[in-house]
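Bump. Still looking for Protein NATD1 C-alpha cells.
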Amino acid sequence: MSKANVDHDVGANAFVIHLGKDGKEKALLEYVKEGDVLNLWHTEVPVNHRRQGLGAHLAKAALDHAVEKNYQVKPTCTYIQKYLKDNPLAEYTERVIPID
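Sorry for the wait, here they are.
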C-alpha cells in the first residue's frame, strides 16, 4: 500500500485524497455525523487510481478519527464493512454499531 495524504474536509463531511498534479481529481470517503456516531456511507476511488490502497487509507483515516474523538461507527458502506472484516482491530470493531 502506497503512502497517501488524507485530508479531513469537515465542511463536506468527507475524508479526501487529492490526486494528480493539479489535485482536482480525488478519492473520498463520505460520512454523516449522527450525534456521537459516524455513518460511513460512501467510498469512491476514480477507476484509474484503483488497486493502489487508496480506499484503505481513507478507511483507516476515518476509523482513526472515530477512535480519537470517541465516536461509534455505523459502516453502511460495503467497502468499510470489508475493510473492518480484513482489519479486525479491537479499537475499530468495538466501536461498530449494527446497521438498521
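The longest helix spans residues 54-69.

Edit: fixed formatting.
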